[in-house]
Amino acid sequence: QSSNPRCLDVLAAALAETGNFAEAAAMQRKAITVAAAASPPMPVDEFKLRLELYQGGKAYRQPRVESPKP
Known about the structure:
By secondary structure, the chain is an all-alpha fold. Helix content is about 60%, strand content about 0%. The protein is built from three helices and no strands. It has helices at about 5-15, 20-35, 45-55. It starts with a helix and ends in a 15-residue tail after the last helix.
């Protein structure tokens, strides 16, 4: 398993998308731990927000970005 917090974050999002919220939350907690232990530490605020989603039984979806109209 990866020790890259961004990879763990993406894996957690994929798990949540398939309804595996308990596994998603566990993976997201690991992402937070690894990010906080990095040198230098990575910001974890967004990771924590996604953890709250997974604990609440919700998947993370990136906000849709509208393309500029020609």
